[in-house]
Structure formats: structure tokens, C-alpha cells
Design a protein that fits this description.
Distance between the termini: 60 Å
Number of helices: 16
Bound molecules: nicotinamide-adenine-dinucleotide
Helix content: 40-55%
Shape: globular
Oligomer: single chain
CATH topology of the largest domain: Aldehyde Dehydrogenase, Chain A, domain 1
Strand content: 15-25%
Largest sheet: 7 strands, mixed
CATH class of the largest domain: Alpha Beta
CATH superfamily of the largest domain: Aldehyde Dehydrogenase, Chain A, domain 1
CATH architecture of the largest domain: 3-Layer(aba) Sandwich
Structural class: alpha/beta
């Protein structure tokens, strides 16, 4: 069976079909697509396991057959972004998500029995897990395959229809995703719409049953407002400044390579990359040396190194350069490692990693999410100072702690709130399928991965099944002595 294509669907809906549909839908075709998905979701509310499995297996086939082409598209969008990085950070992550989901889905879909309190017995109760309907997914450019298809897989597993709006900053990847998905799925099952912020704003105004947004905190605020107008619940996977706390008990060389890896993967363009380092005062020079050695090991060269990603766009590159220039102008010491590319003369924007010591508290480096290969280092006098610094700022998406002193570790973990934590490494908590992934406060709300994601995009409908032996009429009016006796008994029992 051929899936119903976007064009056929729109023609059937009497909507003007834009020949560039997969590149930029018109407003009316966007609404027609939504209406088609909405109608389909209401016609098939109970989505059986076999249908969900089939959809997931089609995504799996898409990755198996076109993984290298997707990696090439990402590479072309970035200028430099190694296919191996896409293999591990996009494709592998999606394969593990698919494999975990396919295995666990029969169990997740089952009604979940809950125990029944004495006063309601002998009724019984359970939670029925149902699809929400139509889920909108808006995704960013930094891991454009993972962050598009991850929420899509989760939404399909939960039995939903899905409309995906990938980033305009990775146009080749988005176009390929649109083409592959268009071939493998009916448009009322899963479709891709492409466009810029303007289209995205219209997209977020559609009355989805859930809107799953991954991107910046600034745009997240706009999305939350647009969704609120429809009372559409959202999951916001946002950004922020994730601290990396180095304890006095830490071996700096061991920590430095892990921090360098987490920071420089994708040239710092990772939502959970360490944004800044807090370390005991006096250890700055030793950390600088250890970090420089780590960088030299991971990336012996910067310009022309196929393993070291380029900055996504001239605008992003200029922003990072401006942050660095401001810090330097204001007296910070900047330790640059390696030779960056000459972006001004048209080379791919491979920006050399830099540590920054002594940045001003109100500098852009310390005020904004960096999202690039610059790492400010902030010395602290006492662990309490480090904790206070973190708590005086918006709650971060991730926190990293390095050391061997478990009492100190527990103090930091107990006294700070973040979306997630990895101890003695960076990034790794995102890869654990049994750990929900998401932010808190300004770094987002709602989480996904594993069963948490399935539940986020499902309705858990509480069902109570009354028994013919139930004695509910004891509570019916007219109220009198019998009612008072029963309530008296219950009060004593509770
Ligand atoms: P962005 O917010 O600029 O864009 C994300 C998406 O939002 C894009 O598809 C864009 O077209 C769309 N968009 C733009 N304007 C919109 C509007 N008015 N309404 C609705 N959607 C709109 O983010 P980005 O630059 O693509 O990604 C980088 C940011 O994303 C960083 O802040 C990073 O920390 C964050 N991020 C978070 C996670 C996470 O899982 N928490 C993962 C990756 C990236």
C-alpha cells in the first residue's frame, strides 16, 4: 500500500497544494494537514500494538537504509560535522530508543492496575494508557536527526499522529527527512513541514493535543504562550547554563578529558554541554594545562580537522566571537587551544576551543547560554560559594560533578536542582533510557526517553469499575443516623 502523500491528502481536502509543500507549506495547507491528522486521530482512537510497531519499524528501516545519507546531509548543513558524530549522537541514540521502545511497548501499553482503598472496595481500578491524538514536534539544528526523530518515535509509540517542524538552519537534513518520511508514511500519520520562525510560529498556534518543543529558552517562552491559547499542553526541552563543579578531591587530568569531550562534542553546540566550570581557587593554572592536554589529545588540530564540527551559521559564529572579544576587552585571560579556521575567508567555521579566566560577572559569557567551544572557569573559595553561585541563577538543564569525596558530592546534589546530573563524566545521563530527560524551570518542563516519554505523550485515563456488591448507597441522601455512623467509623479508621 502506498501511503497517502501530502499532495493527495491536500487535494482531497480541497486545499491548494503548494508544489514546494515539503519545503514550505502555505497557511491553509498547514491547517489542512493538521485537520487531516486530527480527523484520523479521532477516527482511530484505539491504536493497537501492531500499528504502533509497524510505524516504529518504518522509522527503523528509514534509519537502516538512509543513515549514511542523513549523516552526509548533516555534514553538508554544518560545513564540517563528522559522519561518525552523527552516527553516535544521532543515529545510535535513535536506534537504542527504538530498540528499548519496541521491547517495552507491550508492557507500557497494558492497563496498569492500582490498589483500591478499603472504603471503595470491592470495586477495582486501573489506568488506561491512550494516545493523546495529534502531537506537534518542533526541533532544533544541533542534533537535527536525533532531536527530530526522538520525540517522533516517542509520540508514535504512544499511538499519536505527528507533525514535525525541523530546523531551517539544517535545510538539507530537514529536506531529506521530509522526503524519506513522505515516502514511508501517510501524511495523516506522520508528516514533515519545513519553514523558518514565521512558519514555526504558525505551527505552534495549531490546536495540537500536545506540542513538543526543543530549542532555546527565548523561543520556548513564545511557544508556551502560543500553545496556552489553545490549552495545548507542552513539553519544553530548552537550554541554559549547565555548570560543571570540580571538587577539591578531583583528579584534574581525569576530569579534564571528560569535560573537554562533553564541551567540544559538536564544538559545544550541545544543550547539555558544560557551560562553565567551578573549581577550587588556586587550581586554575593546573586545570588550564590539563584541559589543553585533553584538547590536544582529542583534536590535535582544529582548522581542517574533520572530527571537529563547524559552528552552524555566520550569525552563531559572530555571536561567539563577540562574547570572547567582550570578555577579553574587559580584562579576562583567554587561553585558546589550537588554530581555528579563517571563517572570514570562507573556510568552514571551525572555532578554536578557549578557556576564559576572570570574565566579568555581567559579561555575555556568564549571562547567556554559550553554545559553542568557550568555557569560562570560575574559582570558588568554599563549596558553599559554588552552590550559592548555581542557585542564584536559573535552574540548569544539566549539572556535572567531578571528584571522589562522596559527602561533598551529596552536598552539591542535595542543594542544587537541575534537569539531570552525571557524576564524574559529562553528557552520559542523556543516554540512559531509564532516566527521564528534561529540564526544570528555565531549562524546560516535561521529560522524555523510556517510559517517561511514553507517558508524557499518552493520556493515563483513570478507570474505576464498580462492583455489584458495592455499598455506595450508604453515603446517599437522605442523610441521617446511618450516614453519621458510617462516617464515624471511617474517621476512626483513617
Ligand atoms: P531555536 O529556539 O532558535 O529554534 C528551535 C526551533 O524553533 C526551530 O525549528 C525554529 O524554526 C523554531 N522556532 C523559531 N521561532 C519560533 C517561534 N516563534 N515559534 C515556534 N517555533 C519557533 O533553537 P536552536 O537555535 O535551533 O537550538 C539551540 C537551542 O536549543 C539552545 O538553547 C539549546 O540549549 C537548545 N536545545 C535544547 C535541547 C534539550 O533537549 N533541552 C536539545 C537541543 C538544543
Amino acid at each position: 500500500m502506498f501511503p497517502i502523500g501530502v499532495a493527495a491528502l491536500l487535494r482531497a481536502a480541497g486545499s491548494p497544494y503548494d508544489a514546494r509543500m515539503n519545503s514550505s507549506p502555505t497557511s491553509s495547507s498547514l491547517h489542512a494537514l493538521f485537520n487531516a491528522q486530527h480527523q484520523a486521530s479521532r477516527q482511530q482512537i484505539d491504536v493497537p500494538l501492531a500499528v504502533r510497531r509497524d510505524r516504529l519499524l518504518r522509522i527503523k528501516a528509514l534509519l537502516d537504509d538512509h543513515g549514511p545519507a542523513l549523516a552526509q546531509a548533516v555534514q553538508a548543513d554544518f560545513g564540517v560535522r563528522s559522519p561518525q558524530l552523527t552516527e553516535i549522537a544521532d543515529l545510535f541514540v535513535l536506534r537504542t530508543l527504538l530498540s528499548h521502545t519496541l521491547k517495552a511497548l507491550p508492557k507500557w501499553m497494558k492497563p496498569q492496575k492500582v490498589s483500591t482503598p478499603l472504603y471503595l472496595q470491592p470495586s477495582h481500578a486501573y489506568l488506561q494508557r491512550q494516545p493523546l491524538g495529534v502531537v506537534g514536534v518542533v526541533s532544533p539544528w544541533n542534533y537535527p536527526v536525533q532531536l527530530s526523530l526522538g520525540p517522533v518515535i516517542t509520540a508514535l509509540a504512544a499511538g499519536n499522529r505527528v507533525m514535525l517542524k525541523p530546523s531551517e538552519l539544517t535545510p538539507k537534513t530537514s529536506a531529506l527527512l521530509a522526503e524519506l518520511i513522505g515516502k514511508a508514511f501517510a501524511a495523516d500519520e506522520l508528516c514533515v513541514v519545513q519553514g523558518d520562525g514565521e512558519l514555526a510560529a504558525e505551527f505552534s498556534g495549531l490546536p495540537f493535543d500536545h506540542l513538543f518543543f526543543t530549542g532555546s529558552t527565548a523561543v520556548g517562552r513564545i511557544v508556551a504562550k502560543a500553545a496556552a491559547a489553545n490549552l495545548t499542553p507542552t513539553t519544553l526541552e530548552l537550554g541554559g547554563k549547565s555548570p560543571c563543579v570540580i571538587d577539591a578531591s578531583c583528579d584534574l587530568n581525569t576530569a579534564a578529558i571528560k569535560i573537554a569531550h562533553g564541551k567540544l562534542l559538536n564544538a559545544g553546540q550541545t544543550c547539555i554541554a558544560p557551560d562553565y566550570v567551578l573549581l577550587p581557587k588556586g587550581k586554575e593554572a593546573a586545570f588550564g594545562d590539563a584541559f589543553a592536554n585533553a584538547v590536544a589529545k582529542l583534536f590535535p588540530t582544529i582548522a581542517g580537522n574533520p572530527d571537529y564540527a563547524a559552528i552552524i551559521s555566520p550569525r552563531h559564529h559572530e555571536r561567539l566571537q563577540a562574547m570572547l572579544a567582550q570578555a577579553e576587552r574587559e580584562g579576562a585571560r583567554v587561553q585558546v587551544m589550537g588554530e581555528g579556521a579563517d571563517a572570514a575567508s570562507g573556510e568552514p567555521r571551525q572555532m578554536a576551543p578557549a578557556l576564559v579566566f576572570g570574565a566579568q560577572a555581567d559579561s555575555r559569557l556568564l549571562a547567556e547560554e554559550i553554545f559553542g567551544p568557550i568555557l569560562p572557569v570560575l574559582p570558588y573559595d568554599s563549596l558553599k560559594d559554588a552552590i550559592d553561585y548555581i542557585n542564584a541563577r536559573p535552574r540548569p538543564l544539566a549539572l556535572y560533578w567531578f571528584g571522589t569525596d562522596t559527602a561533598s558530592r551529596d552536598q552539591v546534589l542535595a542543594q542544587t536542582v537541575s534537569g539531570g546530573v552525571t557524576v564524574n563524566d559529562t553528557l552520559m545521563h542523556i543516554a540512559h533510557e531509564n532516566l527521564p530527560f528534561g529540564g526544570v524551570g528555565e531549562s524546560g518542563w516535561g521529560s522524555y526517553h523510556g517510559e517517561a516519554g511514553f507517558l508524557r505523550l499518552s493520556q493515563q485515563k483513570p478507570v474505576l469499575v464498580q462492583s455489584k456488591w458495592a455499598k455506595g448507597d450508604l453515603f446517599y441522601p437522605p442523610y441521617g443516623k446511618r450516614f453519621d455512623q458510617v462516617m464515624g467509623l471511617l474517621r476512626r479508621w483513617l
